């Protein structure tokens, strides 16, 4: 897992301290970091760069094991060790739909990807806020292969 923000420079990077920029969650996998699996996986989907696949493969493995292949078990935030955040007993499409994009990098994830798709499309706009719905929409464009790849 990666943190929302990183402090330091050169060879001394570290997860940000609490309240570094936004909240007590700045140094953990939260609402900023949840977009990382989507963005890195999309790099692999568009460019084929295996470094990106190698980055998201362990995330996919961990997520499938942690959730017992049940999208309903995806948490809205994690510690950097991959543990659920205490008192976060709710769903967030920004996390769920971003993990769906990361599942696209390997055909072995197809059944899991199908579960995520079915889970995501069943939520109505009124079920979530602007942030979650915006990320859901962007990710549904990718999941449905309705995105375009710029010419090089």
Descriptive tags:
152 residues, mainly alpha, 2 strands, single chain
Distance between the ends = 31 Å
- Which parts are unreliable, with pLDDT below 50 for 5 consecutive residues or more? none
> Mean of residue pLDDT?
93
Strand order in space, largest sheet:
1-2
How would you sum up the global shape? globular
Rg: 15 Å
Beta-strand proportion:
under 5%
Q: Count up the domains.
A: 1
The SSE string, one letter per element, is EEHHHHH
Number of strands: 2
Summing up helix and strand content along with how strands pair, one would put the structural category as mainly alpha
Number of distinct helices: 5
Largest sheet, if any? 2 strands, antiparallel
Helix content: 40-55%
Oligomer: single chain
How would you briefly describe this protein structure?
By secondary structure, the protein is mainly alpha-helical.
């Amino acid at each position: 897992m990666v943190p929302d923000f990183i402090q330091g420079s050169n060879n001394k990077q570290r997860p940000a301290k609490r309240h570094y920029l936004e909240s007590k969650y700045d140094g953990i996998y939260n609402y900023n970091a949840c977009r990382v699996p989507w963005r890195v996986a999309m790099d692999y989907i568009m460019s084929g760069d295996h470094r990106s696949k190698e980055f998201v493969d362990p995330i996919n493995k961990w997520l499938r094991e942690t959730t017992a292949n049940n999208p309903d078990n995806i948490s809205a935030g994690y510690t950097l060790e991959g543990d659920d955040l205490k008192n976060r007993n709710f769903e967030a499409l920004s996390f769920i739909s971003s993990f769906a994009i990361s599942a696209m990098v390997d055909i072995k994830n197809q059944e899991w990807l199908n579960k995520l798709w079915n889970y995501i499309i069943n939520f109505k706009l009124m079920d979530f806020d602007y942030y979650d719905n915006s990320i859901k929409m962007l990710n549904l464009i990718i999941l449905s292969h309705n995105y375009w790849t710029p010419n090089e």
